[in-house]
Amino acid sequence: MNKTLGIRVSLQGRGNGIGSDKSMLILSNHLSYTDIFVISSIFPVSFIASVDEVKSDLLLGKATELSGGYFVERRSRSGLRAEIEEISEILKLGINVALFPEGTTSNGKQVLPFKTPLLSIAEKAGVEILTLCIKYTRIDGEALTDENRDLICYYGDMKFFDHLFKLLSVRSVEAELTLLDKIDPRTASSRKEMARSVYDMINSAYMNDGSAETAAKSPASGR
Q1: Structure confidence by residue, pLDDT tens digits, 105-145
Q2: Is 60 in contact with 164 (CB distance < 8 Å)?
Q3: Taking CA 60 as the corner, what is the angle to CA 140 and CA 109, rounded to the nearest 5 degrees?
Q4: What's the Cα-to-Cα distance from 43 to each of 8, 25, 39, 196, rounded to whole Å?
Q5: Burial label, 192 (beta-carbon count in 10 A; 0-12, 13-18, 19+)
Q6: Is the pTM of this model over 0.85?
Q7: What one-character DSSP code corresponds to residue 166?
Q8: pLDDT in tens, 144-203
Q9: Is the dihedral of CA 202, 203, 206, 209 positive or negative?
Q10: At what angle do helices 58-66 and 160-168 cross, to 10 degrees?
């Protein structure tokens, strides 16, 4: 069990990608800014973040830059194509790259539909995709519930410093990081089909938990 920033991280599915000598595109669900530290506690990785949702936040943007993050402008199709090429080159250098295909954080009750364009990075770079599932399971020794989940989940119009101050008042947070299957992008018939497979794996792992409310499976988005 690793511990980072007061969050105890329990790793499930050991051996799937740990110690690999090849770089991977790592995909995970997204619940909070703390997800970066959970994943970084296991993998050396550079994160892809959205300009409009992260870089515009002074503190979160700076923290992402310092962690080796790379910002993309998802609203610009022309700019996105160039950024996909650049990120592919980072992977070719042997550096793991992680992104959150939901494009934003959820409220912890479900995995949001995926935005798919950045998944083409894996095919261009010739690397496998490693899927992860993050779950925050306990806060101050109590199971995650509707009453306490907002102490760790950061979403919607929450204010960063307000949320951070509440989180700092918490004595302990426990998280599970589950390593799911690897996917070879060359075996997928299309990007959307690959995104759906990744979504189904992560969603199934996340919803198979008493702390997460059962929700209808949402299809991967083609946005």
Answers
A1: 999 999 999 988 888 899 899 999 999 999 999 999 999 99
A2: no
A3: 50
A4: 15, 11, 6, 24
A5: middle
A6: no
A7: H
A8: 999 999 999 999 999 888 998 999 999 999 999 999 989 999 888 888 888 999 999 999
A9: negative
A10: 70
